[in-house]
Amino acid sequence: MGRVLPIVVAIALLVYALIDCLQTDSTRFRSLNRVAWAAIIVLIPLIGPILWLAVGKVRHRPQRPAAPPPRRPLAPDDDPEFLRHLRDVDDKHEQMLNQWEADLRRRETEIQRKKDAEARAAEEAQRRKEAEARQREDEARQHTDDEDDSR
């Protein structure tokens, strides 16, 4: 196992470096072309792949942006536009609710007026009936009194 491990590492490094060389864009090669680097990697074991990885291609380091991009609010309740929209919707709902309540009060008042008018009309009808009944009783008494007087 001790003798096989360096050979396996050298072959793995050779395969990795060769694949990386073949897939690298030609504008990123430093001094030699693709064929020359592939020959160096294959013909000089262990040193060729290390050379390729160390100096063979230009490495692009990610550059930090000059200024951080503007941050968007993370949550809707941090977004002023969203909060403004909610206030507008709340105002609309409040107006609608006030209108409904006023309409309901108006309807209740109308219904109460109708009930009061019906109650007054019923009381008036009851009074008329009672008055007519009293009048009939009085007429009946008077009629009976007149009959008693005539005898």
From TrEMBL:
Instruction: Give me the segments passing through the membrane.
Output: 35-55
Give the region (Disordered) as residue ranges.
61-81, 110-151
Topology in the lipid bilayer is annotated as: Multi-pass membrane protein
Query: Lineage, please?
Result: Bacteria, Bacillati, Actinomycetota, Actinomycetes, Jiangellales
Instruction: Spell out the subcellular localization from the entry.
Output: Cell membrane
The cross-references to InterPro entries, in alphabetical order and at most eight, read: CLS_N (IPR027379)
Domain Cardiolipin synthase N-terminal: start-end pairs: 12-56
Kindly list the GO CC terms recorded for this protein.
Answer: plasma membrane
The answer to keyword Membrane applying to this record is: yes
Q: Kindly provide the name given to this protein in its UniProt entry.
A: PLDc_N domain-containing protein
**Basic and acidic residues: compositionally biased ranges:** 110-144
**The keyword Cell inner membrane is assigned to this record:** no
The entry's keywords:
Cell membrane, Membrane, Transmembrane, Transmembrane helix
Recorded hits in Pfam families, A to Z, give: PLDc_N
